[in-house]
Amino acid sequence: MEYILKKNVNSEIEENWGTDRKLGRRGWGPLSGTLKEITALEKLMRGNGILVNSRTGAKGLEDEFYKLLENKKPELLHIATHGFYESTEAGKSDTPTSRGALFKIRNEKDVLNRSGIVLTGANYFWKKGEKFKTNLEDGIVTSNELSSLNLRNTELVVLSACETGIGQNKGNEGVFGLQRGLKLAGAKRLLVSLWKVDDEVTQLFMQHFYNGLIGQKYPIQKAYLEAQEHIKKQYPEPYYWAAFSLIL
To answer: Model pTM?
Structure first.
């Protein structure tokens, strides 16, 4: 998993306890394309004179994430990791013996506590139900936690992760999930995914998106559409090219 900031860019890779395709009881697995994605973005940004701050591996902690956002006030925040959204229906099949982190999240009444992203340490918490170090955060950043951040200086948040655009639809109030948390924090524009995305195709999409945005100085909308068209030529199925949605 990675996270990255423009004018301040950071990245993180999660340790692996094993994974299911769904958000599972065993945690999240590694994303092979994300380190390649972050390395390419860092090179592109630095080549265009943009100050970059990055975090990977053991440095990709939730605590570091908060410190960077507090101290750097990024104009663009790029997060490449696993995202999740758990509906209330998902927890109905849980047994009384499954009262760990997953059970707790699935049974939260507030939908903003049932969606989020994962950073370093999240797998340990998911498996053990406790933090891997008592003086650190658990590595799971919920939408509620994101909503309390100050992202008023952030022009764009890119969530290079699965299902970051979904949530609970509350009629004319809109969708409650990660996007709601980030908007409440003050982020002006979001690039999010609507379903489970292919890791390698996501890497290609992001590469072309940022080449347009940073390298060609395109407006955000044009960079997004150009990247989408590029992927569409290689992968015609909507599953690949239509996964990401730009929220203005």
So the answer is: 0.80
